[in-house]
Amino acid sequence: MTILDGLLGVEELPRLTISPAEIERARGLAMSRDHQVDLTEAVITRVERIAAAQDRPAVRDEARALTYAQLAEESRRIATLLEGAGVRPGDVVAVGGVRSVSVIAAFLALELLGALYVPADTIWPANRVADVLEQAGVRVLFNTDPGEITPVLAEGAAKAGVSIVRSAQVASCEPWAGPARLDSLDQPRYVLFTSGSTGKPKGAVVEHQGMVNHLYAKIVDLGMTEDDVVAQTAPLGFDISIWQMICPLINGGQVHVISDETSYDSVAFAQVIDAQAITIVELVPTMVRLLLDDLAAQEGNQIAGLRWMLATGEELPGEVARRWLTEMPQAGLVNAYGPTECSDDVTHHTVTLSDLELLRLPIGTPVVNTRLYVLRKEDDRWFACDRGETGELFVGGTGVGRGYLSNHDKTRDAFFADPFEETLTRRLYRTGDAVKVLPSGPLQYLGRVDRQVKISGVRMELGEIEAVLQRHPSVGAVAVVVHEIGL
């Protein structure tokens, strides 16, 4: 059995109940952005081409640094180790342990073998590790811990019956020979597990073309060059960890892996940004707020070389954005939005002072090769929303993933055959998020669609009420609920 046996084909996906006339309206109202990028080349191939042209620093962590040539060689040694452990094209391999350059090399090694990456995050309990390994059908777990194996990984692997190979074994292996086993653009590349409503995680499968398209989306929108250094801060179980590890490597840039201990200490984090000339950072808004708080207590601007701060994973409060724009004017602020199921971000928005007049900050416009549709459902049929109307966001284009691994019911709930355009994936993803297109052009996020309520026949978005209350300077966090009482 291969991973493809656990995925639905496009022909097996449901179709939206939408009329031909509304399909045409939706096409005319769609937000789209086409951009020519090379989706065919494997990242490891690009790394080796850069190394051959002009070897330069590629990745580093707190223990060591590798050039492009050294990274490619280590990736090929890991490929030899994994192939010796029985890994074949199409197999799923877990990578877990300390975040380090070894994780990045392992990710590239799997590209050489044509295998899929799934993270085994050390912040998970052992039962979740075991559940993820079993659901993904993991062949082997590659452990990056320099000393003893993290207990939850050892316990989880034992429960799942998965063998472990250690990064300490890599040095004794000969480099693997041959080109990357990339058979097609729609070849599954990684599986990331998201929380399920039943408590059981769902494995979202992303294709090679979706992953690479998202990497180029970051390069295009951030104007990335070989001089950029990206901070790798996200735990391995979060989708943003993928682009943080890989994106700079297709552009000649550098990745700096920052430990959890340093990432959670805002003062130490800022010192690393400054000392290592880091130019691009992505954090959840809560961490952006803490960073601003700690920097305000320091003398001078400790992160003067930072070019971009990306906020993601949570709604970006207007007050946090206001502080960033006024206190850190040297670095642009990007509000990023996207689901794991669509290769991470599908919109970017560079925040401006004029955005602060809105109740909620815009989430932006589509990243490259992405199509966005705002639809509303009435009497079991879908209709295209005009500008300013609230509807549900659907995503089409290159980034849309393959669905949930071995979970056909959940796949059919969220993925549809695309009725609008003949894109590479031919799939459409239903986000479950309420949005509207602002008069100025970008999308505005309004909350989950299941948080829309009717009071005395009037539809209300609880998220909009929260946004108004959040604007008060004395309010740090707010949640609005509806409580029915008898009269």
Question: Whole-Å distance between the termini?
Answer: 60 Å
Q: What radius of gyration results from the CA coordinates?
A: 23 Å
Task: Please summarize the sheet with the most strands.
Answer: 12 strands, mixed
Mean pLDDT: 93
Structural class: alpha/beta
| Morphology call | globular
**Which band does the percent of strand residues land in?**
25-35%
Classify the helix fraction into a percent range.
25-40%
Give me the count of strands: 25
The stretches of 5 or more residues where confidence is low (pLDDT under 50) are none
Q: Total number of helical segments? A: 14
Descriptive notes:
By secondary structure, the protein is an alpha/beta fold. The chain has helices spanning 20-29, 43-54, 68-84, 101-113, 126-136, 151-160, 208-222, 240-246, 260-263, 266-275, 285-296, 318-327, 408-414, 462-470, and strands at residues 31-33, 57-60, 65-67, 92-96, 116-120, 138-143, 163-166, 188-194, 202-207, 229-232, 254-257, 280-283, 308-311, 332-337, 347-350, 362-366, 370-378, 381-384, 391-397, 403-404, 415-417, 427-437, 443-448, 452-455, 458-461. Strands 1, 12, 13, 14, 15, 16, 17, 18, 19, 21, 22 and 23 form a twelve-stranded mixed beta sheet that branches. A four-stranded mixed beta sheet has the order 3-2-11-10. Strand 6, helix 6 and strand 7 form a beta-alpha-beta unit. The termini are far apart. Pfam families: AMP-binding. This is AMP-dependent synthetase/ligase domain-containing protein. Residues 50-405 form the AMP-dependent synthetase/ligase domain.
